[in-house]
Amino acid sequence: xxxxxxxxxxxxxxxxxxxxxxxxxxxxxxxxxxxxxxxxxxxxxxxxxxx
Length: 51
Ligand SMILES: [Zn+2]
Description:
- By secondary structure, the protein is mostly beta strands.
- It has one domain (2-50).
- The protein has one helix spanning 45-50; strands spanning 2-8, 16-20, 34-36, 42-43.
- Strands 3-1-2-4 form a four-stranded mixed β-sheet.
- It binds zinc ion (ZN).
- Residues 18, 20, 23, 25-26, 44, 46-47 line the site of zinc ion (ZN).
């Protein structure tokens, strides 16, 4: 489902933010690297496709 924007602080991850908790890419972010907000990144393509 749709959630507040979040992103990864891991520099090896793509510079995107997610806004679905079931995004396959967003789900790979470990809790320690997960932060709320967009960080001025563009939106993840998976999340775009989910609406
Ligand atoms: Zn995503």
